[in-house]
Amino acid sequence: MTATLVPVCSSASEAAPRTHAGKRPAAAASPAYPSFASYVRARQPVLLRTARSLTSNPCDAEDLLQTALAKTYVAWDRIEDHRALDGYVRRALLNTRTSQWRKRKVDEFVCDELPEHRETPAGDPAEQQALHDAMWRAITKLPARQRAMVVLRYYEDLSEAQTAQVLGVSIGTVKSAVSRALGKLREDPELRHTA
Asked: Taking the alpha carbons of 17, 19, 23, 25 in that order, is the dihedral positive or negative?
C-alpha cells in the first residue's frame, strides 16, 4: 500500500473557505487583483509624495501609504469608478493620518516654571578609572566568601535574599558578612587616598 502526499496549501485560493454550496466566495477566487497591482506600480510615486506632505518623516509616509493602499485593496470590488482611484486613496491617506493624529498621546503639561535638566558634572575619566581599579584591588583583598557576597550584592545587583539563595546561606549571614566587608573596604588605605 503506497501513501499519496496531499499538499497542505498550494495557493491562497485553495485555502479560502467554501460556502454552503461548496463554492468559494467571489473575492477569494481571485486572491490578487491584477488591476490593483498595476495601479500601485503606476501611481505609487505620486501617492507617496502626497503621503510625505501629510507627515514629517519619510518612513511614516511609507507606512501611511501602505495602510491606505491596504484599505483600498479591501474595498477594490466596491469602488465603481476606477478613474477616481487617486481621490479614493488620497481620502484614505487623509483619514488614516487624522486617525493617527487623534490617537496620539500628548505628554505635555502646563507649569509655572520650566523644569531644568540638571546634569551632575562628570568627573575626570582618569580619576574614575583609578577609583574603579582601586576598588577592585580592595575587593580582591577580602576573604573569598565576603568578596562573593559583595560582588553579588553590589555588582550583580542581587537582593540579600537572592544572594543568600545563590550561596546557600541565610539572609542574616549575608547581612553580617556584607557589613564586615564594607567596613574593611572603608578602612582600605588605597580607597581612602583615592576618595
From this structure: negative
SS3 state of residue 140 = helix
Question: How much is the pTM?
Answer: 0.39
What is the Rg, in whole angstroms, of the alpha carbon atoms belonging to the chain?
A: 34
Contact (CB, 8 A) for 52 and 61: yes
Average pLDDT across each block of 10 residues of the chain; the chain has 195 residues. List them in order: 41 41 43 79 90 87 92 87 86 87 68 69 80 88 90 88 90 93 88 66
Distance CA 184, CA 135 (A): 12
Relative orientation angle of helices 58-74 and 85-103, to the nearest 10 degrees: 120
Please, are residues 195 and 131 in contact by the beta-carbon 8 Å criterion?
yes
Grid coordinates standing for 121? 558634572
Closest by alpha carbon to 173, among 185, 188, 161, 191? 161
Per-residue buried b or exposed e for 81-115, using 16+ beta carbons within 10 Å of the residue's own CB: eeeebeebbbebbeebbeeeeeeeeeeeeeeeeee
